[in-house]
Design brief:
It holds the Pfam family OB_ChsH2_C. Helix content is 0%, strand content 41%. By secondary structure, it is an all-beta fold. It has one domain. The two termini are 26 Å apart.
Length: 155
């Protein structure tokens, strides 16, 4: 039996560099330098810009908590949910270099009570679910920046 593989839950939203560090992929307007995430290659989101060219670029790996909440209920079908369901935190993180705010799941073991506005966060990946073919699907996630040394599974 072949070894189980790991694939992103959504292709093209994040990647790893040569050192294995994960970064998000965003679009950057060629005309006004506005950033967007999730990535796209056209239709600048800046209402003052009429450009239809966005270049795909790596985004900052670090940022600060802008807002956060906690999901306490499993998603409805057809979305996958672990059984039993465990609450998890969601953070809106303002990227350090771009100023863009990116919403994402926070790594397991971190709840809303562990977060505060202005806290330093760092990007990682984590398993999201295993699909019907046995492929582990991963997603990007935020973790408290100083947690890397404590987190053995951070990628």
């Amino acid at each position: 039996m072949p070894a189980a593989s790991t694939q992103p839950a959504i292709e093209g939203w994040f990647a790893a560099d040569d050192s294995g560090a994960t970064h998000l992929i965003g679009g950057k307007c060629a005309q006004c330098a506005t950033y967007v995430f999730p990535p796209r290659e056209n239709n600048c989101p800046n209402p003052a810009c009429d450009s239809d060219v966005l270049n795909l670029v790596p985004l900052s790996r670090r940022g600060k908590v802008w807002s956060y909440t906690e999901n306490r209920y499993p998603p409805p079908a057809p979305y996958p949910a672990p059984d039993p369901f465990e609450p998890f935190a969601i953070a809106a993180v303002q990227l350090a270099d771009e100023g863009l705010i990116v919403l994402g799941k926070v790594v397991e073991g971190t709840l809303a009570a562990d977060l505060k506005v202005g806290m330093d966060m760092e990007l990682t990946t984590m398993p999201l679910y295993t699909d019907a073919d046995g492929v582990e699907r991963t997603t990007y996630a935020w973790m408290v920046a100083d947690a890397r040394s404590k987190e053995g599974t951070a990628r």
